[in-house]
């Protein structure tokens, strides 16, 4: 990171005026953040401040963006890069927010080489080197295993970083073959589960393409981590290495630490 940029970021953090009540409210509503330690929460907050300073968020179709909307989107966008750093999102600035789903024109080439043009409603979109587009209505529908912000920013990490059409390259120090084999095997298994008609862990949209599988499983990784770790342990482990986070492990660890602190406090009280 350049010296000038580092200096600018330090200054941004020093001068930032983040509404603490609003931050607590937005943070508290995102239940999948409750396992973060105080240190992680503080680092996430800093990332969010820098993200808001460096990116430009615009409402489309006359949609007015409140501070709460900006903060909610930034917080979810920054969770995947908590331990990767903001530089992963370098090279683009725009986030466009529609009030609801938006219509896009799509082109598809079939097996005979015929191009089909059609319109489709989208909850989100990510352009390589370009903007992220989100439907605020769909951001609000987020729940366990479904999170349109994390989905689109997982695409951003994939599209703007090293990798091929299917998957991003593994992170530094990871076993490249293990990463690829695990993702391929998990994708094949998921597609077979969808074909069998049995209920599946996440939206069956994930079977559309390996890149969608990566984005949808990233949603599950952050927002339904314990279930993903149970059902797809090898995939979970690889994603934990990729994102350098262990969402399924940190909540139990935090609860254990809090219980231990309470016990220690009680012991002190008993002696007093
Ligand atoms: Zn997608």
3D structure, described in words:
The protein is built from eleven helices and six strands. With 272 residues, it is an alpha/beta fold. The chain is globular. 30% of the residues are buried. Zinc ion binds next to helix 6 and helix 8. The site of zinc ion has 4 residues, from helix 6 and helix 8.
Please specify the SSE layout and strand pairing.
Elements lengths: L2 H13 L4 H10 L8 H17 L1 E4 L7 H12 L15 E5 L3 E8 L5 E8 L1 E3 L5 E4 H5 L7 H13 L15 H21 L13 H14 L1 H7 L1 H11 L3 H25 L1
Parallel strand pairs: 1-2, 2-6
Antiparallel strand pairs: 3-4, 5-6
Helix pairs in contact: 2-4, 3-4, 6-8, 8-9, 9-10
The protein binds zinc ion (ZN).
The site of zinc ion (ZN) has 4 residues, from helix 6 and helix 8.
Question: Quick summary of this structure?
Answer:
The chain is of the alpha/beta class and 272 residues long.
| H and E order | HHHEHEEEEEHHHHHHH
Bound molecules: zinc ion
Q: Count the DSSP helices.
A: 11
Helix content: 40-55%
Extended strand count: 6
Distance between the termini: 52 Å
Low-pLDDT residue intervals, each spanning 5 or more residues: none
Radius of gyration: 20 Å
In percent, how much strand structure appears in the residues?
Answer: 5-15%
General form = globular
Biggest sheet descriptor: 4 strands, mixed
Oligomer: single chain
Mean residue pLDDT: 93
Q: Give the helix/strand class.
A: alpha/beta
């Amino acid at each position: 990171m350049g010296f000038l940029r580092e200096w600018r970021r330090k200054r941004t953090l020093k001068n930032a005026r983040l509404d603490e009540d609003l931050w607590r409210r937005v943070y508290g509503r995102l239940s999948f953040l409750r396992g973060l330690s105080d240190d992680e929460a503080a680092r996430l907050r800093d990332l969010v401040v820098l993200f808001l300073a460096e990116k430009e968020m615009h409402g489309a179709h006359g949609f007015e963006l409140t501070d709460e909307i900006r903060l909610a989107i930034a917080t979810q966008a920054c969770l995947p890069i908590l331990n990767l750093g903001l530089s992963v999102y370098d090279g683009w600035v725009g986030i466009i927010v529609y009030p609801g789903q938006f219509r896009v024109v799509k082109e598809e080439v079939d097996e005979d080489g015929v191009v089909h043009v059609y319109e489709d409603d989208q909850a989100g979109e990510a352009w390589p080197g370009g903007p992220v587009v989100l439907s605020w209505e769909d951001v609000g529908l987020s729940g366990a295993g479904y999170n349109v912000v994390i989905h689109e920013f997982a695409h951003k990490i994939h599209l703007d970083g090293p990798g091929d059409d299917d998957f991003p390259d593994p992170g530094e120090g990871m076993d490249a073959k293990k990463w690829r084999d695990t993702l391929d095997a998990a994708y094949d298994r998921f597609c077979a589960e969808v074909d069998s008609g049995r209920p599946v862990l996440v939206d069956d949209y994930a079977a559309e393409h390996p890149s969608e599988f990566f984005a949808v499983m990233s949603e599950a990784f952050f927002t339904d981590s314990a279930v993903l770790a149970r059902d797809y342990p090898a995939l979970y482990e690889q994603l934990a290495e990729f994102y350098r986070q262990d969402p399924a492990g940190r909540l139990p660890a935090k609860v254990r630490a809090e219980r231990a602190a309470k016990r220690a406090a009680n012991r002190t009280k008993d002696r007093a």
